[in-house]
Amino acid sequence: MAGDTERIEQEIAQAREDLAKTLDSLAERANPQRLADDVKKKVMATLSTPAVKYTLAGVGTVVVVVIVRKIVK
Q: Where are the transmembrane segments (predicted)?
């Protein structure tokens, strides 16, 4: 009987440790600063691709040309 009590106490202690690790992991994954950093990295990676980079450069050039033409007229 005493052995069963010790075993149950050990299982409870192990379950508490597992729960604490799980909660720590969830807290880290839900950290707003980390989430913002992850989004920032993904956006920067997307903007660094040649297709996006050259498209944005082309659109910027067209906008500048249109503004200069409106100013000159």
A: 51-72
